[in-house]
């Protein structure tokens, strides 16, 4: 009996944290998210986040409108991701930053032959500069859309928001 009591008290159940924003078992798909979910920096420093599409079929293009607190963050740069990278022609990316409103519009699409691209991957990389300390949420607006190679809207099942923490 002593051995059983010792065995039961010696075993601890680990407290696991499941916070991977790209975990398709934890999200409704197809979806769109920021990775990392929380990016940390210092005031005056930069934070890099990527926009990921998750478990999408035949993706032809994405329009992502990101909302953020423009008094806390400044967009430093935006670059195309690797998701559409299999095309003979690089995926174009068009951006528009709306200063004074706190929105960033990103349009990118597949330029390859045949159907679109399926799976999970990054479509853009954004670098922000932190203007002040604090937590700033990154949200996808209701205008964010995905379309297949024929131009049909793909219903986005989940939009995971991100955060930039400046200390």
UniProtKB/TrEMBL annotation:
Record domain Cohesin: where: 36-156
One Gene Ontology term from the biological process aspect of the record: polysaccharide catabolic process
InterPro entries noted in UniProt: CBM2/CBM3_carb-bd_dom_sf, Cohesin_dom
Xref: Gene3D superfamilies: 2.60.40.680
GO molecular-function terms, A-Z: carbohydrate binding
Protein name: Cohesin domain-containing protein
């Amino acid at each position: 009996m002593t051995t059983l009591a010792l065995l039961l008290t010696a075993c601890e159940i680990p407290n696991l944290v499941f916070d991977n924003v790209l975990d398709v078992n934890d999200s409704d798909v197809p979806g769109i998210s920021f990775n990392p979910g929380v990016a940390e920096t210092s005031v005056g420093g930069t934070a890099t986040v990527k926009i990921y599409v998750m478990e999408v079929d035949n993706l032809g293009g994405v329009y992502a409108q990101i909302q953020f607190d423009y008094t806390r963050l400044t967009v430093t740069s935006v670059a195309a991701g690797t998701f559409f990278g299999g095309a003979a022609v690089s995926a174009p990316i068009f951006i528009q930053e709306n200063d004074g409103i706190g929105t960033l519009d990103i349009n990118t699409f597949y330029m390859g032959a045949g159907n679109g691209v399926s799976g999970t991957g990054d479509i853009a990389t954004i670098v922000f500069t932190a203007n002040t300390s604090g937590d700033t949420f990154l949200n996808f607006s209701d205008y964010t859309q995905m379309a297949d190679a024929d131009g049909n809207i793909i219903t986005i099942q989940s939009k995971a928001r991100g955060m930039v923490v400046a200390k």
